[in-house]
C-alpha cells in the first residue's frame, strides 16, 4: 500500500467533510508526562476529578485504544459572523457567551464527521482499527495537534495557527495504520504576553499553564458550586466561558468566519439582555438551549452565572425585581443572588428609601411585599 498517497486522500476527504486542516502524528507524548503530572499535583484541574483519575493515560493514546500507532488530528473553525465581541462585552446589561457556544454543540458534529472519515479510509484500505474522539476521552489533544502540524500551544494553552489564529475546535481519529507523519508546528508567540496580562482573573500562571480554579470558563461551566467572591467582579457579564485571551491575541487578526452554519449565533441569543435570560424558566431554558453545549450546565447554574453578571451591572430596578423572584431555590443560588442584590444596593444613594428596603431584603431575605 502506498501510504503517502493515502495521506493525500485523507486530507482531501477531511476538507470535503468540513475540516479546515488535517494533520497526522505518532502517539509518543512522553515528553508531556512530567508537565501533566506537575499540573495535576498543583491542583490546577480544580474539581475536574476525571483528569487526575485517568492519570498518564491522557499522554498515552495507545493505552486508550490498544493498537493505535497514529493520530489524525483535525481542525474545524467556529468563529461566527456578527460575533459582536465589543457590543456584548462593553454593555454590562448584556450577557456575554463564549463564541464557541453561540450555536450548536460541536462534539456530536465533529465526531460524526470523524467517523465518516474513518469509514472513507476503510472503504479504501479494508477493515482497520480506528476510533474518533472529541473531548470524549482523556487525551492530550493540543500536544497531538502540535505534533500533527495544526499549530502550536500558545501561552494561554490554546492551539494557535499563524494562518488562522485560535478560533477552532479540535478532534482526533486514533488509527492503527503506519501513515507518514507531518512536521510539528513551531512556537510563534515570541515575547508576546497579551493573553497573560489580559486575563480578568489572572488564571494564566505561567506560559502555557492555566489554573482552572481561577479561569472564568471553568468557573462558569465546569464548576457548579459557590464561586469565590474574589472572582465575581472580574467576571463582569461573562455568563458562559470567556474569550479575553483570544480577543487580544495578534494572530487572531487572521481568523476567518466559519462556513459551518451550525456554529452561527442561535436565535435565542438575539436578545441577550441579562434580565430576559434570567427570567427564562427551566422549560424555556431547555427549549432555547436544545442542541447547545450550554444545556449541560443546567438551569440553576445558568441562573447562578447570570446572578453574578446582574450584580456587576449598573443599578436597575428590573434587575432587583428579577433577582428576588429566584430566592429560595437553592442555597448555592441564594448565595449569589444576595451578593448581586448587595452589589445593586451599593450603587444607590445612601438617602434613598429604596436602599433601606433593599437592605431588609438582602439581610433578612424578606419578601418584596414585606
From TrEMBL:
Residue ranges annotated for the 4Fe-4S ferredoxin-type domain, each copy included: 177-209
GO BP annotations listed: tRNA queuosine(34) biosynthetic process
Gene Ontology CC: cytoplasm
Catalytic activity: epoxyqueuosine(34) in tRNA + AH2 = queuosine(34) in tRNA + A + H2O
Pathway membership: tRNA modification; tRNA-queuosine biosynthesis
Binding sites annotated in the UniProt record for [4Fe-4S] cluster 1: 189, 192, 195, 249
Listed Pfam families: Fer4_16, QueG_DUF1730
EC nos: 1.17.99.6
Record note on cofactor: Binds 2 [4Fe-4S] clusters per monomer.
Keywords recorded for this protein, A-Z: 4Fe-4S, Cobalamin, Cobalt, Cytoplasm, Iron, Iron-sulfur, Metal-binding, Oxidoreductase, Queuosine biosynthesis, tRNA processing
Binding site for cob(II)alamin: 58, 135, 153, 159, 170, 217, 242-243
Active site per UniProt: 135
Subcellular location: Cytoplasm
Residues given in the record as [4Fe-4S] cluster 2 binding sites: 199, 215, 242, 245
Names of the cofactor(s): cob(II)alamin; [4Fe-4S] cluster
Keyword check for Oxidoreductase: yes
MF terms in GO: 4 iron, 4 sulfur cluster binding; cobalamin binding; epoxyqueuosine reductase activity; metal ion binding
Purpose: Catalyzes the conversion of epoxyqueuosine (oQ) to queuosine (Q), which is a hypermodified base found in the wobble positions of tRNA(Asp), tRNA(Asn), tRNA(His) and tRNA(Tyr).
Subunit structure: Monomer.
Family: Belongs to the QueG family.
Protein name per Swiss-Prot or TrEMBL: Epoxyqueuosine reductase
Species the sequence originates in: Vibrio ouci
Lineage: Bacteria, Pseudomonadati, Pseudomonadota, Gammaproteobacteria, Vibrionales
Gene that specifies this protein: queG
